[in-house]
Amino acid sequence: MAKIKILNVAVLNDNPSPFFSSFQFEVELECIEDLPSDIECKIVYVGSAESESHDQVLNSVLVGPVPSGRHKFVFEADPPDPTKIPEHYALGATAVLLICSYLGNKFSRVGYYVNNDYIDPELRETPPDIIQFDKVERNILASNPRVTRFKIEWGDESEEESGCTDALVEISEDPMVV
User: Fold this and answer.
1) What is each CA distance from 122 to 15, 89, 117, 127, in whole angstroms?
2) Residue 54: phi, psi to the nearest 5?
């Protein structure tokens, strides 16, 4: 049984926003019993659908130890380094992931589709040879996160649980409701 549930993740950025703006997420979680160790949360920008080698960890924080109850925090990260993104993947669809782990085991991943495109319609129609990231905006599809929950060993079970479940979660206007 999961000891931590991610109740809600809200995108706090203006949407769309400039490519070079930070990512900001408000994360609400519930812990059903005290956890003596920290949970690790990471924001990962997917640089290429073909290889994880282009993914960038934008920020990583340790939260804890976590007492039982509901908790909320704002998690912010700098934008990705465009020099690490393959040019043919810089514009168009990609994803940003919020990954949470406990004792080195991933228990939750919340992913958002992201679309990067030029603000100026003329640049969209006739893009320059070299991408001008200062003229690109990022649009996070905040209304349809892809949530994957992983069963893990929380440190006190006699046998390890395995597997995962995928779920689409609708985020309501009230950040307390999922």
Assistant:
1) 21, 20, 11, 8
2) -100, 0
* pTM, entire model: 0.85
Q: Which amino acid is at 121?
A: P
Low-confidence ranges of the chain (pLDDT < 70): 156-178
What region, left, alpha or beta, does residue 69 occupy, with left being phi > 0 and alpha being psi -120 to 50 degrees?
A: left
What pLDDT does residue 30 have?
95
How far apart CA 112 and CA 100 sit, in angstroms, is: 15
Q: What is the pLDDT of residue 157?
A: 52
Euclidean distance between CA atoms 45 and 54, whole angstroms: 9
Q: How far is CA 173 from CA 143, 170, 177, in A?
A: 10, 10, 8
Residue 101 tokens read as 């782990």
What is 4-168's CATH number, 1.25.40.10, 2.60.40.1490, 1.10.10.10, 2.40.50.140?
2.60.40.1490
CA pair distance 171, 27, nearest whole angstrom: 12
Report the pLDDT value the prediction gives residue 49, as an integer from 0 to 100. 84
